[in-house]
Amino acid sequence: MNYDVIVIGAGLGGLTAGAKLAKEGKRVLLVEQHDQPGGCATTFKRKGFTMEVGLHEMDGLHAGDMKTRIFRDLGVMDAVKFLKVPEFYRFVNERYDVTISHNPEEVQETLISIFPKEESGIQAYFYQLMNIRKIMKQSADQPETTIGEFLDSIIMDEDLKLILLGNLGYFHDDPYSLSLNYYSMAQSSYYQGGGNFIQGGSQVLSDYLMKVISDNGGTVLLNHLVQEILVEDGAAVGIRFQSQKKHEEEPELAYAGIIVANASIPQVAGSLLPESYAKLLRKEMIGLEPAASLLTVYFGFNKKLKDIGNHHYSTFIYDKSVHKPADIRLNNHADFDQRSFTFVDYSQIDSKLAPDGKAVGAVCCVDYTSDWESLDKEAYKKRKEQAAQSFINRLENLLPGFRQAVEYYEVGTARSVERYTLNPNGAVYGFAQTPFRVKTRIMNPVKNLYFASAWTQTGGGFSGAIFSGYFCAMEVIRAR
3-class SS at 479? Predict the structure, then answer.
């Protein structure tokens, strides 16, 4: 089998790259080990409910957002309906209950009314976010700091810092190792364009991008695992792969002048490349570590949660043990009865995830495969149940009637993420976005091999993966 381009993996990076290249006339083969496309941009069905795997809200989609241009180019805007999320987030701890809107001016007014002595720091924070591109140009040659250090330099009140860091889990697990520039770019996009949810769930976007590939003459093979990238004379020339359903069959070979790896860069270096090239790629990754993973409890409810008094789309609940930003990292390793978490109520919008009169929601918190590695099957199942019950109890305290509203629940852990995406450590955001990572560009030792995923310099999340895929496609087009 011969193609112009072979894409390894159908996460958003691979799908975007494949869609753009197919649209530009390239003969594309996309090979995905899972039975559906999307990676973390997927859904699954349970008892009449559609469970959203990864998307809480997608940032941006304003006129200046690169995703707007990408989606228009690929026809996404005509095929996918984006719903505006009502507010950015609600922050709750023992001392404060604050709703943060997507309007930066409104948020500043709200926070200054609560923390009048911190007016200058609040203004400095939003100046940083809303002018980040100019600031990055002006400080290009200067050492970069972290968001934690930046907040410490402009704000005294620890609770105010926590409120501003409410959605930190969208990016990283520790404010003192998260790049200020990376955080500012991502966070400002929420304030500029608001949050957006894909009606029907993120699978709608993934399925559409896959359709773009096939409609333009490309081939998508699901349930097929790539075992090796073939390299000749220093250049990638093809892949060896095998059906996941028919292991008795011999592996197949496919050839192309371009190979796009949507697989994680550590996986490419660990098992897909010949060792001589893998060794060179591993040297490029020195100093880079996989980011944290996530645990999710998926809920199907027998009623809309407005019926029990919930009026917020996403609520970030910080445990009483978190008094300052330096406590966040430790708390992310705490037991689940203390670990801070997010609760998303998809029934606050017309999500189309649940039957009429019912609702879908999710609890999400930072997680690590190391917390689950030593457990056998029964112990793993028991710990998942303990986690679910812990979060149900805590939400019952916040929203009386929550427990009775639960019709179905299921827990996905960092191990689940690793299993379904093959990302090492279940790292949903690729490499941890430290200041060192943001300034580090991995040099590929293999000709004609390109990377398109959250593991590239654009970073994780839906936006990062989409950018990576599109930029990769444009690089291929320019090179050819």
Answer: helix
The upper half-sphere exposure of residue 73, i.e. CA atoms within 13 Å in the direction of its Cβ, equals 18
Q: Chain-centre distance of CA 132, in angstroms?
A: 21
**Six-digit token pair at 167?**
């959605």
* In the chain, where the domains are located: 2-43+201-288+431-479
211: which DSSP letter? H
Contact 225, 35 (CB under 8 A): no
**Dist CA 470 CA 4 (whole Å):** 17
Residue 248 has pLDDT above 70, yes or no: no
Rounded to 10°, the helix 66-74/12-23 angle is: 50
pLDDT digits (tens, 9 = 90+) for 215-228: 999 999 999 999 99
Rounded CA separation 94/86 (Å) = 24
* C-alpha closest to that of 172 among 436, 462, 430, 362: 430
Cβ–Cβ under 8 Å, residues 364 and 296: yes
CA atoms within 13 A on the CB side of 397: 11
Judged by phi (left if over 0) then psi (alpha if -120 to 50, else beta), residue 124 lies in: alpha
pTM, two decimals, is 0.96
d(CA 391, CA 125) in angstroms, rounded, equals 32
- pLDDT for 249: 75
Q: Please state which architecture CATH assigns to domain 2-43+201-288+431-479.
A: 3-Layer(bba) Sandwich (3.50)
Check residue 305 and report its DSSP letter. Answer: G
- C-alpha neighbours within 13 Å on the C-beta side of residue 396: 12
Which amino acid type is present at position 43?
A: T
Task: Indicate the SS3 state at residue 428.
Answer: coil
Please provide residue 48's backbone torsions phi and psi, each rounded to the nearest 5 degrees: 90, -5
Q: Is 153 buried (19+), middle (13-18) or exposed (0-12) by CB count in 10 A?
A: exposed
Which residues face 196 on adjacent strands? 58, 84
Query: What is the tens place of the pLDDT at every residue in 269-289?
Result: 999 999 999 999 999 999 999
- 304: helix, strand or coil: coil
From CA 445, how far away is CA 40, in angstroms rounded? 28
CA dist 361 and 345 (Å) reads 5
Angstrom distance (rounded) from CA 196 to CA 199: 9
